Amino acid sequence: MKGTGKWTVQQAAELSVAAPTIAASLDCRYLSGLKEERENAAEILKEAGLKEEVGAVKSGIDKKRLIDDVRICSYAQGMNLLRAKSIEKGWNLNLGEMARIWKGGCIIRAVFLDRIKQAYQRNPNLASLIVDPEFAKEMVQRQAAWRRVVGTAISAGISTPGMCASLAYFDTYRRARLPANLVQAQRDLFGAHTYERVDRPGAFHTEWTKLARNSNAAGVHALN
């Protein structure tokens, strides 16, 4: 994928300049393109019992659960990066075997790698660790605790970029339909790029400025 967003993030990394907001917007663009994966993830996590209930923070228990979910997201992103490079180069990497090798001869020797190996043994073509049945079930069970801790940190003004980024990744990946759809409406506004609708096929264009004027006029008329 080309574009100024990609080039900007690449330059920021090369120059050691923090640009998390720009990087987040680029990540959202990439995730938006994974339509089929997101639809599949939405179904899998729904079947695993995902609910939006949050509640109050439960001290150390919540923190432990949060760390476990953040860890899954981190490994999922790393494995997806390896998978993408393997496809690009035609390497045909065995991701489960790589996890086994790392545990035996790498600084990353966590027991967690055994579970990653098992996940890829169950499904060598796994799109993401997040949708592995075992990992999906655990993330669903712990996600409320994750939200409680992140929400408390935000309210207290405590910076938790890794935790917040992981939660945003999880929430974006599990949605069949994203707010990013509105970006195309903006593009149609400033460049008449047209957009597609969910209720009928075809490309559409709207005179947004004219529509806004008419809406404002109707509102004023209603007040009078």
Describe the model.
This protein has 224 residues and is mostly helical. It folds into 3 domains: 1-32; 34-177, N-(1-d-carboxylethyl)-l-norvaline Dehydrogenase, domain 2 (Orthogonal Bundle), CATH 1.10.1040.10; 180-224, 6-Phosphogluconate Dehydrogenase, domain 3 (Single alpha-helices involved in coiled-coils or other helix-helix interfaces). It has helices at 4-14, 20-32, 35-47, 59-89, 95-105, 112-122, 133-155, 161-173, 181-191, 208-223. Helix 2 (20-32) runs parallel beside helix 8 (161-173) and helix 5 runs antiparallel to helix 6 (112-122). The radius of gyration is 21 Å and the shape is globular. 19% of the residues are buried.
Features of this protein?
single chain, 224 residues, mainly alpha, N-(1-d-carboxylethyl)-l-norvaline Dehydrogenase, domain 2, Single alpha-helices involved in coiled-coils or other helix-helix interfaces, 3 domains, 10 helices, globular, oxidoreductase, gluconate utilization, pentose shunt, 6PGDH_C
Overall mean confidence score, pLDDT? 85
CATH topology of the largest domain: N-(1-d-carboxylethyl)-l-norvaline Dehydrogenase, domain 2
Any idea of the CATH class of the largest domain?
Mainly Alpha
Helices, by number, come to 10
* General form: globular
Ends: how far apart?
Answer: 51 Å
- CATH homologous group name of the largest domain: N-(1-d-carboxylethyl)-l-norvaline Dehydrogenase, domain 2
Low-confidence stretches: none
Number of domains: 3
Strand content: under 5%
Rg of Cα set: 21 Å
The CATH architecture of the largest domain would be Orthogonal Bundle
Keywords: Gluconate utilization, Oxidoreductase, Pentose shunt
Protein name: phosphogluconate dehydrogenase (NADP(+)-dependent, decarboxylating)
GO molecular function, one term: phosphogluconate dehydrogenase (decarboxylating) activity
Family: Belongs to the 6-phosphogluconate dehydrogenase family.
